[in-house]
Amino acid sequence: MSTPTLEATGLTQGAWTLDTSHSEVGFAVRHAGISKVRGKFTKVEGALTVGASLAETTVTATIAADSFDSGDANRDGHVRGADFFDVEQFPTLVFTSTSISGSNEDFELTGELTIRGITKTVTLNGEFNGVAVDPFGATRAGFEAKTAISRKEFGLTWNAALEAGGVLVSDKVTITLDVAFVKAG
Question: What pLDDT sits at residue 83?
Answer without folding.
Answer: 87
